[in-house]
Amino acid sequence: MNDKKNEDGTTIVVNDDIDRIRKKVWGDRTPPVVERKSSGIGPDRTTEMSDYFNYAQYDRATRSHTFYKEMIGAMLNSLKARIGNKKCTILELGCGNGTLTEELILLKNAEIVSIDVDKNAIEFTSSRVKASNLKFVRADALKFRADNHVDIVIASWNYEHITNYKNGHELARSIVANLKKDGLYIEGAELIGTFQNEFERQKAFIDYHEEIIDRALKDGNADTAEIEYLAMISGITGISHHKRDRETHIKEMESDGLQLKRMEKFGPFTKIVGSAGVYFFEFVRADDVK
After folding, report:
1. Which tens digits make up the pLDDT trace of 234-259?
2. 189 - beta bridge partners?
């Protein structure tokens, strides 16, 4: 692979690693090109993740992803413990392929608004997840404001698509603007290891995604391995997947009105990935903390 430039003009410095992992996943096949389409994110544009992912394959991959079930289970347990049998309102940031949405509609006392900036996510999920207590809205999570403050804001693997490396605090601000004073933000996230420069950032993507790819290949989950490769390329090239390290992500969330209440990592627990991995978070509004 020849040297290439990221969208911000920086050089891709992990070409040998990319080639090695590409051969693991794709063999002699040519991977899909990861690039932002003209319809991609921005004013009056309509797509985001579907610029470089097929939602049907992404749906299959998500359900086979290592640690995803544990993360979703923790999110749902947190949600159920918080609301009990009370009526509640839920705002889901990023419906994506709907694996979380389809669980939320089973909460009979919940009224759910699920948003996504990607029109194809809305179309894919709304075609297969239907309920009287669910409403889909195509909207930018950084700008969306619910008609009324909600009890719960929830998001699964979405912050890295919603934000870039410059505006993470805007997500926290938007969550606070939509959340009741005693509300809760529940998040499932993928994080990479700490990095101090562009080389370390790219290597952190390689280390985390290769770990998940190897696990997927060992288990025979080709869809997961292929999607993880595309996610890795998206992150390295700056197309999307703007993953942070744990401390930076918490700092961003706490910079504009949220405060960490609880955190749990589900894996992987290996020396090479370090603090990277799949996480569950609970945040409350900072003005609720006494």
Report:
1. 999 999 999 999 999 999 999 999 99
2. 279
* pTM for this prediction: 0.95
The region that residue 145 occupies, defined by phi over 0 for left and psi between -120 and 50 for alpha, beta otherwise, is beta
Q: What is the per-residue pLDDT across 90-119, written as a single tens digit (0 to 9) for each? A: 999 999 999 999 999 999 899 999 999 999
Per domain, the residue ranges of the chain are 15-27+50-83+158-288
Q: Residue 73: name the closest of 52, 96, 100, 49 by CA.
A: 100
With beta carbons less than 8 A apart as the criterion, state whether 134 and 110 touch: no
AA letter at 29 = R
Q: Which two tokens stand for residue 140?
A: 């930018």
Q: What is the overall mean pLDDT for the chain?
A: 95
Give CB contacts under 8 A, 24+ apart, made by 30-37.
31/226, 31/229, 31/230, 31/233, 32/230, 34/230, 34/233, 34/234, 34/237, 34/239, 35/239, 36/7, 36/239, 36/240
191, containing H or E segment: strand 179-191
Q: Is 67 left (phi over 0), alpha (psi -120 to 50) or beta?
A: left
Collapsed DSSP state (helix, strand, coil) of residue 102: helix
> Is the model's pLDDT at 2 over the cut of 60?
no
Q: Judge contact between 195 and 245, C-beta under 8 A.
A: yes
Query: Tens digits of per-residue pLDDT, 252-288?
Result: 999 999 999 999 999 999 999 999 999 999 999 999 8
**How many Å apart are CA 216 and CA 195, to the nearest integer?**
25
- Edge-first strand order for the sheet with 110-116 is 134-138, 110-116, 88-93, 150-156, 179-191, 277-285, 258-267
